[in-house]
């Protein structure tokens, strides 16, 4: 049953490319009671939010079955419960926030091996990669929030204009309420916990829906969060399309979604019904422009680290394609070949340092890209695949036709096409003819080219002479633009993403200008004009004083 | 016949739309709108429009909604002039690249945030402040270097046509288009792909806008309304008390006869103060608007018959009618409603469940002023919350225990004029914030740019992986400099992995 249900998850994957809308997967499972029995006994992988218990007696098994039907009503109950916790005010408390963040930090610290194992199970993610890009990043994020929270929570003083003199003003960050985080499978741990850290730091109650496509990590997160954080305000709902639909029916105060543009549209349309603001972290085709004047070895290494060193290319900011000059392309390919061999050995299919493709669906999707006519003969390196192990070797292609699927869809895998152009500025046109990517990379020592790149290309973020690293910089906002999404997070930006910036203006009753009140006279208009356009504070003060006395005489 | 002609005109506009948009996109691609000098010249254009067309603006506002020209200046022209000046003064700073801090292990890397325009944006504005709510966002969109389509409200037709006919003469026609029209045009506009949509209006239409935007993954900002409460505490000083009441009345009737998203919707007050409050309010209303408010011309009329009837129906409820303590006369011919005060209308009546958006002021009495917190929290989050008090403890509680777009103590409406404060809602009152720099940010993408060179590379970044590299990473991410040094020197043992 485990494998059966897994396959089921895959076939209606919420990942890129699947064309199915939201069929009701759960009701299907429910009409086959014989399966439920088996399913319950293996329930660890698709538990919803019940207490963790596999050694169930018959009666509690029935209860378990009941709880697994995570439908709209159950979702509504869940939100209601969390709203109750939020309304109690406890999540606004600095101490509560810190203790939850510490709980997460402790969880990552203590359960590191389990996390690494789950990631290995889901993606064959190499331990080092798992540690570097998921565990350390999450830990770092948590520690930063713990360290900075006091400062983030402080009201920000705002200058007040003369028109409202005398007054003082501040901007206060307040939590939004109950928020939903829907994460994805390529960095199933980091992309689940990182937004949760922001939401909790900002004082919200959170429901996290990890991706069913990485089931081991999903169920581990569900189990661990139950153990390490306050369950009255932080919850995990596991599941696929049906559960997600049930969650999206609810009214949230913010929805944070990581995944594909297709599902992003569904999320946003669902949010519109409740006027819920959304943050969409999507992907796109992230280009790399490589100039001929660069340190070839370093550039090649950095490209490899960003492409195959990131879940084997299954990352939203992994390089999608390279643009370089015709003369330089062969040299670049040679360098990539040498460095790839150094990193992953002569036979990369055997390498323990490469992740596998997440599932059969995505494996087939990638082979389709590769097998397209006029594409398959462009392979200059790699191309090996193993359907059983879901492995595809690092593959480089040269001059794939512009109109091919590979050059029009997000690749999200270990295939790297190289486009050779006459001069690099032509590459700008290629990039600008596509939708705005989440990241754009440039390798060059030419200052002029850097300037043009920053000025003429729009992308979520850009990195010059490296790949991926901007993701680790907590002082930079991380997020897309256009098709690559909306809203940003990381560091303080995460806190802000889950906060409402409340404007607070304090006025006193001194210095009240009667011009504000009717009956309106021509004299009042004159004074109003002087008041509103005047720059010299002394004049304004004099006016106000004059008006005050006039006001008194008035009475 | 007239209807048919109007429909035809709308169809014509629709046919024209896609061509116009392609022209705007093409112009954006030329890069012209990104230039600082261009942005400045556009802002100056807005300023010239406001100054040269002041009389026409006054007239249009008078005609569409009966707004007195002093009110028009105070709430629209004056505030806009101030906003343009503010934008012109700070544009250079807003446009400049912001350096981001980096830990020293990252040396010699530099990080910065580059604000860039989004492209082609759509502004859909409203009829109650037809110039203010059109041009305030326009200032932000132009300052941020976008091309813009502005759709003013068809419910204030004189103002819309002034914007459509006169404004383009002051701006770069290739970058700014004003499109007039009703629902059909609105729908067509929403079919298109924009890089941002700013909508000001009702929650109902807000939902439609966001649903349409979702198809194109277009970010939206919704400036909606809601029932903005005014909490009135007791005052020991008569000066304070009187000014609090004046500000409440001005916050209710003074801005477009209560047809304003930040206008006061209802007042919360302690029961024991209610009767003296009502008496004082009556006196002040008379002082402000005279015995015959309609003749004073100091108060706007209701925008149209539909809204007039809506407001009338609020009063038609017998229990509500019985709670009227002042005013209550309605003149359907001139669409004028007298400033009206109600004392404790039923809480389940439409006047207390729907946004009033008109010159009817319900006063709700509470046992203790502190109960106002619970009362406010029982309703959807408001765009603005006004609290008249000198009680510091109450102020603190209000700030931390309630949620609203903004909180203003001891005044109303004025927060709208503060460029340094974000203006925008939360929950049912919308999302996204603008005014001042926030307007610029609303129409910009903050692009993160990280620059590296080829000199230093951490060898441990690359596979094949081993424990030593793992440990270095851990130290690196936690900025544990000492551990890095020790590891590199071979003085610390890498952690053991099972």
From TrEMBL, chain A:
BP terms from Gene Ontology: aldehyde metabolic process; response to abscisic acid
Listed transmembrane segments: 527-547
Domain Aldehyde dehydrogenase: 84-504
GO-annotated cellular components: cytoplasm
MF annotations from Gene Ontology: aldehyde dehydrogenase (NAD+) activity
Alphabetized InterPro entries for the sequence: Ald_DH/histidinol_DH (IPR016161), Ald_DH_C (IPR016163), Ald_DH_N (IPR016162), Aldehyde_DH_dom (IPR015590), Aldehyde_DH_NAD(P) (IPR012394)
Catalytic activity, reaction form: an aldehyde + NAD(+) + H2O = a carboxylate + NADH + 2 H(+)
Pfam families for this protein: Aldedh
Keywords, comma-separated and alphabetical: Membrane, NAD, Oxidoreductase, Transmembrane, Transmembrane helix
SUPFAM superfamilies noted in UniProt: ALDH-like (SSF53720)
Active site: 281, 316
Family: Belongs to the aldehyde dehydrogenase family.
Protein name according to UniProt: Aldehyde dehydrogenase
UniProtKB/TrEMBL annotation, chain B:
Single annotated GO MF: aldehyde dehydrogenase (NAD+) activity
Keywords annotated in UniProt: Membrane, NAD, Oxidoreductase, Transmembrane, Transmembrane helix
Record-annotated active site: 223, 261
Example GO BP: aldehyde metabolic process
InterPro entries reported for this sequence: Ald_DH/histidinol_DH, Ald_DH_C, Ald_DH_N, Aldehyde_DH_dom, Aldehyde_DH_NAD(P)
Cellular component, GO, one term: cytoplasm
Membrane spanning residue stretches: 472-491
Keyword Hydrolase: no
Segments forming domain Aldehyde dehydrogenase: 18-449
PANTHER family referenced in this protein's UniProt entry, alphabetically: ALDEHYDE DEHYDROGENASE (PTHR43570:SF30)
Family: Belongs to the aldehyde dehydrogenase family.
The name this protein goes by in its record: Aldehyde dehydrogenase
Organism: Liquidambar formosana
Lineage: Eukaryota, Viridiplantae, Streptophyta, Embryophyta, Tracheophyta
């Amino acid at each position: 049953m485990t494998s059966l249900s897994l396959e089921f998850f895959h076939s209606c994957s919420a990942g890129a490319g699947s064309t199915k809308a939201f069929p009701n997967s759960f009701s299907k499972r429910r009409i086959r009671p014989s399966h439920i029995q088996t399913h319950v006994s293996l329930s660890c992988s698709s538990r919803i939010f019940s207490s963790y218990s596999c050694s169930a007696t018959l009666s509690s098994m029935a209860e378990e079955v009941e709880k697994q039907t995570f439908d709209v009503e159950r979702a509504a109950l869940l939100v209601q419960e969390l709203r109750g916790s939020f309304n109690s005010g406890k999540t606004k408390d600095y101490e509560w926030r810190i203790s939850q963040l510490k709980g997460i930090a402790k969880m990552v610290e203590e359960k590191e091996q389990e996390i690494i194992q789950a990631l290995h199970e889901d993606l064959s993610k190499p331990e080092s990669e798992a540690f570097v890009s998921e565990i350390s990043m999450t830990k770092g994020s948590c520690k930063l929030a713990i360290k900075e929270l006091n400062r983030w929570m402080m009201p920000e003083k705002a200058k007040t204009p003369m028109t409202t003199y005398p007054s003082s003003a501040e901007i206060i960050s307040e939590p939004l309420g109950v928020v939903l985080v829907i994460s994805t499978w390529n960095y199933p741990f980091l992309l689940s916990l990182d937004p949760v850290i922001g939401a909790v730091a900002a004082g919200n109650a959170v429901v996290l829906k990890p991706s069913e496509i990485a089931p081991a990590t999903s169920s581990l997160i569900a189990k661990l969060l139950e153990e390490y954080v306050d369950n009255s305000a932080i919850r995990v709902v596991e599941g696929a399309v049906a559960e997600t639909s049930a969650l999206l029916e609810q009214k949230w105060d913010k929805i944070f979604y990581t995944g594909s543009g297709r599902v992003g549209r569904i999320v946003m349309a669902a949010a519109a019904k409740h006027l819920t603001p959304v943050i969409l972290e999507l992907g796109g085709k992230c280009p790399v422009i490589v100039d001929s004047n660069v340190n070839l070895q370093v550039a090649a290494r950095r490209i490899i680290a960003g492409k195959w060193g990131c879940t084997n290319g299954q990352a939203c900011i992994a390089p999608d394609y390279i643009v370089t000059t015709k003369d330089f392309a062969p040299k670049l390919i040679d360098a990539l070949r040498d460095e790839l061999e150094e990193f992953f050995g002569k036979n990369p299919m055997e390498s323990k340092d490469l992740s596998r493709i997440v599932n059969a669906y995505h494996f087939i999707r990638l082979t389709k890209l590769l097998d397209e006519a006029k594409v398959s003969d462009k392979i200059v390196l790699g191309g090996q695949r193993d359907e059983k192990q879901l492995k595809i070797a690092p593959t480089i292609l040269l001059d794939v036709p512009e109109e091919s699927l590979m050059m029009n869809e997000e690749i999200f895998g270990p295939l790297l096409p190289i486009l050779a152009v006459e001069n690099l500025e032509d590459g700008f046109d290629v990039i600008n003819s596509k939708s705005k990517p989440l990241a754009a990379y440039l390798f060059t020592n030419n200052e002029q080219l850097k300037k043009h790149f920053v000025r003429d290309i729009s992308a979520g973020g850009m990195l010059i002479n490296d790949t991926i690293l901007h993701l680790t910089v907590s002082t930079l906002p991380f997020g897309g633009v256009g098709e690559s999404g909306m809203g940003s997070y990381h560091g303080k930006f995460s806190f802000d993403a889950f906060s409402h910036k409340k404007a607070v203006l304090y006025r006193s009753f001194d210095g009240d200008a009667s011009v504000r009140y009717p009956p309106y006279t021509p004299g009042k208009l004159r004074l109003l004009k002087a008041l509103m356009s005047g720059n010299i504070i002394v004049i304004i003060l004099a006016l106000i004083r004059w008006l005050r006395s006039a006001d008194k005489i008035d009475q | 016949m007239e209807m048919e002609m109007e429909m035809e005109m709308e169809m014509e506009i629709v046919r024209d739309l896609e061509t116009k948009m392609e022209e705007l996109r093409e112009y954006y691609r030329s890069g012209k709108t990104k230039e600082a000098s261009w942005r400045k010249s556009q802002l100056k254009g807005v300023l010239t429009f406001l100054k040269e067309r002041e009389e026409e603006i006054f007239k249009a506002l008078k005609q569409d909604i009966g707004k007195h020209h002093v009110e028009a200046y105070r709430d629209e022209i004056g505030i806009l002039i101030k906003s343009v000046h503010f934008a012109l003064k700070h544009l250079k700073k807003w446009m400049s690249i912001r350096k981001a801090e980096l830990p020293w292990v990252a040396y010699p890397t530099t990080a910065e945030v580059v604000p860039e325009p989004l492209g082609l944006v759509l502004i859909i504005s409203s009829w109650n402040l037809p110039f203010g709510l059109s041009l305030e966002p326009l200032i932000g969109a132009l300052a941020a270097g976008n091309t813009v389509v502005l759709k003013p409200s068809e419910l204030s037709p004189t103002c819309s046509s002034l914007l459509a006919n006169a404004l383009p003469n002051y701006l770069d026609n290739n970058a700014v288009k004003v499109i007039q029209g009703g629902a059909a045009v609105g729908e067509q506009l929403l079919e298109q792909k924009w890089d941002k949509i700013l909508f000001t209006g009702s929650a109902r239409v807000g939902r439609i806008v966001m649903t349409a935007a979702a198809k194109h993954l277009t970010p939206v900002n919704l400036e909606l309304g809601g029932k903005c409460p005014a909490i009135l505490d007791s005052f020991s000083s008569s000066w304070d008390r009187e000014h609090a009441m004046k500000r409440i009345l001005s916050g209710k009737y003074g801005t477009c006869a209560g047809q304003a998203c930040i206008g006061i919707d209802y007042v919360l007050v302690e029961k024991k103060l209610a009767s003296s409050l009502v008496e004082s309010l009556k006196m002040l209303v008379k002082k402000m608007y005279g015995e015959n408010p309609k003749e004073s011309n100091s108060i706007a009329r209701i925008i149209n018959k539909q809204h007039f009837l809506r407001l009338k129906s609020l009063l038609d409820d017998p229990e509500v009618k019985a709670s009227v303590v002042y005013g209550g006369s309605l003149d359907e011919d001139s669409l004028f409603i007298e400033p009206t005060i109600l004392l404790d209308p039923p809480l389940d009546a439409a006047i207390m469940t729907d946004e009033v958006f008109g010159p009817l002021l319900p006063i709700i009495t509470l046992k203790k002023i502190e109960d106002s917190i619970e009362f406010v929290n029982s309703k959807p989050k408001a765009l603005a919350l006004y609290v008249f008090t000198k009680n510091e403890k109450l102020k603190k509680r209000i700030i931390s225990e309630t949620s609203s777009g903004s909180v203003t103590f001891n005044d109303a409406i004025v927060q709208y004029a503060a460029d340094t404060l974000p203006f925008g809602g939360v929950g049912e009152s919308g999302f996204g914030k603008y005014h001042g720099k926030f307007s610029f940010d609303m129409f910009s993408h903050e692009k993160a740019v990280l620059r590296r060179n080829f000199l230093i590379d951490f060898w441990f970044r690359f596979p094949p992986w081993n424990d030593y590299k793992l440990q270095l990473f851990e130290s690196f991410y936690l900025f544990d400099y000492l551990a890095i040094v020790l590891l590199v020197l071979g003085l610390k043992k890498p952690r053991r992995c099972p």
